[in-house]
Each structure stands twice: as structure tokens, then as C-alpha cells.
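Try this one yourself first.
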């Protein structure tokens, strides 16, 4: 199978976890504390992948300064984009309760939530495409981390969408579209950057990592803490160690 096709398929697989989470939330009533616990675990998994896979690799390829510049740039661009969308109703797009506004309460909020959710997923997908450029297979630790973290993201957000009286067509249209976009982003990440210098790949990896960490702090961790409270830290630590074990098993 061509490598560019592998990149697209792995991106689609990782993005498909969002649809799985949304389906669980739509047809099964999951208690808020369980959603929060899963969200905390997913956050820990993703933080571990950032530290031991993405940032570490970026430093190895491009050096500490390039990595630091890329990392803070990714976080700043993400925060600026999301701040704009938040004004139009996307602020609580990952919340499972009744915080999300309905279309009647805030016109245009449905589109803002969909675009915000898309922006949340693009950096992760690009990273999957980049991981194939070196000639090896996709990083098992990164793929596992993104897949595991995407399930609670889709679950929590879809639960909130359902509370806001959004239709099944909207919910699964959003997450199905984002899953497809994830595959496309991974494919474009591979095709667009294949053959470029390792230093540039390191910077782009760091940009994606910064955006992912900003997303975690902005959406997943607040949602987890709201319901899990003091247990959030412990569950996040378990998620971190789980991803670390996957990383070490792959070495």
C-alpha cells in the first residue's frame, strides 16, 4: 500500500474514534462522572504522547530553540482561532452538560461548534502524516494516544449537543465530517511535507504539539475537573503512564 494512502487511512482510523464516542453518547446514557473520568484519562494519554513522542522528536530533529518557537506559535495560533469561535458559541463544544447553546439561543453556534471541533482535530492528524515521512510505520504510541483521547472527546461533545437539542443528523454529520477531514489532513501532511528538511518537520511537529496542549487545557481538562474534581489528577496520571507504557513497548 502506498505510504500516502497509509497516512490517510491512519488519520481516518484516529478520527473515527470521535464517531465511536458520539455514537456511545447518543444511544447510551453515560453518567457525567464516567464521561469526566474518561476525559481525564484521555488527556493524560495525550500529554504523555506530546512529551515522549512529539516534543522529544522535534528537539532531536530541529533543536530546542526551533521546537520552543514552534510550540508556542502553535499554542498561540490555536488560542487566537478558538477565542474568535468562542464568541459565536463554540466555547463549550466539549462539555457534556447543558452548557452548549442551542441554535435558538445563539444563532450560528452550530457552525462555530463544528469548526471548533475540526480545529481541535487537525493538529493530531497532521502529526500522524508526519510520523510516516521518515520511512517507518506510524508511531503506535501517537496513534494509540490520539485514538483513545478522541473517544471521550466525541462522547462528551455529542452528549452536550444532544442536551442542546441538536439532531442526530447534525451530530453524526459533524463527527463523520471531522473523521474524514482527519484522514485528509494526515494525507496532506504527508504529501505536502515529504522530502522537506528535518528541521522544518521538527518545527511543524512542535506547532502541532503546542496546539494540542492548548486544546487539552482549553477543553478536555476543564470538562474532566468539573465532574471528577479531586480524582482528575489521579486519572490523568494513569492515562499518562498508560501511554508511556505503549511508548516504551514500541522502543
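Now uncover the answer:
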Amino acid at each position: 500500500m502506498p505510504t500516502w494512502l497509509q497516512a490517510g487511512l491512519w488519520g481516518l482510523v484516529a478520527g473515527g474514534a470521535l464517531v465511536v464516542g458520539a455514537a456511545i453518547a447518543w444511544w447510551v446514557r453515560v453518567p457525567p462522572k464516567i464521561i469526566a473520568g474518561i476525559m481525564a484519562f484521555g488527556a493524560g494519554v495525550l500529554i504523555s504522547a506530546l512529551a515522549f513522542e512529539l516534543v522529544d522528536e522535534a528537539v532531536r530533529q530541529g533543536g530546542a530553540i526551533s521546537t520552543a518557537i514552534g510550540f508556542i506559535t502553535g499554542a498561540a495560533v490555536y488560542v487566537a482561532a478558538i477565542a474568535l469561535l468562542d464568541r459565536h458559541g463554540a466555547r463549550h463544544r466539549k462539555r457534556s452538560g447543558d452548557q452548549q447553546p442551542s441554535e435558538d439561543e445563539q444563532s450560528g453556534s452550530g457552525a462555530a461548534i463544528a469548526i471548533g471541533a475540526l480545529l481541535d482535530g487537525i493538529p493530531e492528524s497532521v502529526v500522524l502524516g508526519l510520523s510516516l515521512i521518515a520511512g517507518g510505520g506510524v508511531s503506535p504510541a501517537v496513534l494509540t494516544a490520539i485514538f483513545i483521547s478522541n473517544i471521550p472527546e466525541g462522547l462528551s461533545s455529542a452528549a452536550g449537543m444532544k442536551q442542546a437539542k441538536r439532531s442526530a443528523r447534525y451530530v453524526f454529520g459533524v463527527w463523520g465530517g471531522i473523521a474524514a477531514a482527519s484522514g485528509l489532513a494526515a494525507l496532506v501532511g504527508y504529501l505536502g511535507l515529504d522530502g522537506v528538511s528535518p528541521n522544518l518537520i521538527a518545527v511543524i511537529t512542535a506547532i502541532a504539539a503546542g496546539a494540542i496542549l492548548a486544546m487539552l487545557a482549553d477543553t478536555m481538562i476543564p470538562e474532566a475537573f468539573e465532574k471528577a474534581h479531586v480524582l482528575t489528577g489521579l486519572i490523568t496520571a494513569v492515562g499518562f503512564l498508560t501511554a508511556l507504557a505503549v511508548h516504551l513497548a514500541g522502543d
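Discussion: Helices lie at 3-27, 32-62, 64-90, 109-131, 140-163, 168-193, 198-228, 231-250. The chain is about 80% helix and 0% strand.
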